[in-house]
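Async update (no meeting this week)

Hi team, since we skipped the sync, here's where things stand on the single-chain job. The sequence we agreed to prioritize is pasted below, unchanged from the tracker. I ran it this morning and attached the output directly underneath so nobody has to dig for it. Comments welcome in thread, and please keep replies under the output.
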Amino acid sequence: MTNTPTSNAFLIFLSCVCHLVFGQICYSTPEEMERGAFVGNIAEDLRLNIWELSTRRFRLVSDDIRQYIEVNMENGKLFTNKKIDREEICRQNPTCSFTFQIALKDPTEMHPVEVEIIDVNDNSPSFEKAEYSLRISELIATGARFPLESAHDPDVGTNTISTYHISANGHFAVKVQSMRDGSKSAELLLEKPLDRERQSTFHLTLTAIDGGVPHRSGTAQIIINVVDANDNAPTFDQEIYRAKVPENAAKGTLVIKLKAADLDEGTNAELTYSFTNHVTKRNRALFTLHPRTGEIRVQGTLDFEESPVCDLDIQAVDNAPPGLSGRCKVVVDIIDINDNAPELDVTLVSSAVQEDTPPGSVIALMSVTDLDSSKYGKVQCQIQGNIPFKLEHPVVNSYKLITGDVLDRETVSLYNITISAWDGGSPPLTTSKVVTVSVTDINDNAPRFTQSSYNVYLMENNIPGISIFAVTALDIDLGRNGEVFYSILGGQSQEQSASVYVTINSKTGNIYPLRSFDYEQMKHFKIQIQAQDGGSPPLSSTASVNVIILDQNDNPPVITSPLTWNDSATMEISSQSVYPGYLVTKVLATDADSGQNARLSYQFVEATGRNLFTVGLLSGEIRATRHLNDKDRITEKLVICVKDNGQPSLSSTATIVVSILSNITEQSLDGTNKPLQPEYFSYLNRYLIIIFGSTSFLFLITIILLVTLKLKQGSRINGNYNSNARCHDRRNSTDVFNRGYATNEPINYTVPCQTEGYRYTVCLSPESSKSDFLFLKPCHPTLPFNNLGSQETGTRK
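Output:
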């Protein structure tokens, strides 16, 4: 191809054409341009800065666009990636273009782009054969036409064949006709009668010329033989016949029956029907023409979408040499039926969306086409199932798949979206396509404990560092968002933070004690556990753990009464006062444990007397079993064991030495003149006498001082000090001893006071002559102070 400067300027101008039609960017570029030829400045047309091409991830979205068009990311210009052959892409379609999408992110934008390929005159016309022969009778009248083989030019528009020329001669000219499809056909026109005797053969050159700039041409040789024969040509009753046949017509279906007439007779009137050279190979494959009957029948598979109209040029030739012919045209209209299902072309913008993607976000772009006519080609689309996606229909035959509701990965993590399309036929034809969209996780779920509160039972004296419990929290998020870490928030136990008692494994949730617990010191404590995920920002929840310490039998009983010294106690009883069931003493013991571990039982381990004393199993009361006599020992040694009910059982023992006195009165009176024998007196009693005597003395002095201060205070207030307040009644102690032991009554010392006084009774029990002491006890605690004076001369208790 040779390009002039004018044509080059014209092509460059076409390549720069850019306009916006209904939101679509259109460019035009000539074919056969060298690689790298400028197509358009997409960045300028989209009003984008050059740096936005990379930051917004500019890309071309199409299946095969990259083999023709590329974009320069440095300046935003579109350029050809290779030479574009329009005839290879679109063949002889009158218009030729291809489309693609421009995809941008943040925000997501899609811009349709159409590039129209402009045809250039790069192909010369050509004939199927280099030489053709014609036989023409000399009787043919002037003005007769003879169809010639048409040339073929793959270019379109003005670049295709525009005219035919024939070499100079005295008889023939070329008549150019325009066909229904816009192509040109040539006919040989007889302008001057033939005379075979003068010239029987003509060698003509037929030239086909296209309309390109510059023109291109092709030639073929026409050899015309002039014969002397039949002088009447067959004729049809119509020049153009029309017929209709559905595209699904079966093979052998009759389309039309033609009939031509010839005025000649005999052999010259016998006609043969055939297709002229103007009938294409494709149409010859679709239809058959019976040479004798003129019937046209369906032979191949008709397709309305490929060619809705078929033009058939028919000739009828008589059998007389040289054979005259008549011509007609049959136009066969193919009736469309709904035989093509819609086609869906899906361009996926994003195959993965976050679950917090707002409704209305674009997921995919779809274009829908139907090869059938507009009667059946009206296509509708719909999403199957109740899913949070929907279709938008912005322009004809174009849809957007967008999110229609809030997504939740924990409910559905993968969607297989089935998109159905159906046409307007009856019944309609349908097609479907599945778009797979995965939902990616965000940290929208906090860890959840299996329980809001846990009770943990821990035996005291536990071993530190051994797991006592494990909490579990579940997070239904994925990856880092679903990883759970445990920690102790706090909690109070006996005014200390619970974190000093236990620790927790941050990954497993196992709780470990940091120390050994003592039930007697701590019964329970409470801690707060936090479960936090690894998301950003992290989410958390809490649960409380109540640690209840269980008692273990780790404390033996402790005997609290009677008081012992080196696990031994001494007491005295009078042989005269002992009778069966007589309460000698009651052993009291305590156990720091609880429950069954603190349930105590009492029993003798050793007793010197034979069946003289018994002890209550549960009460600890030591009682005499019989009266005492002179044969009994004066000292009985009882070893008592106090045992708890734990497993294993713990016990304590104590020795009680019981001294049996035969005449307690004499010993009490003589006790001041005779030294006590060792078996009746112990160092413990001596210490106790000193302690309790000193305490009683100090207590008495304190009472006297308080009474004196109270009287002085009253005299200051009233101005009258009563100096006669004194104690005036005292009983001889000999009377006490004379009747105290005989009646077992307490010996009373009453000290009445006239005003706001206090009265105390000193009691001496005959059983405590050596082991018990004098105690001051309040007398008549319920009497009012103003009645004390009237009680002085009354009965003293």
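Quick observations from my side:
The two ends are 151 Å apart (CA to CA).
The chain has a mean pLDDT of 79.
Reply here if anything looks off.
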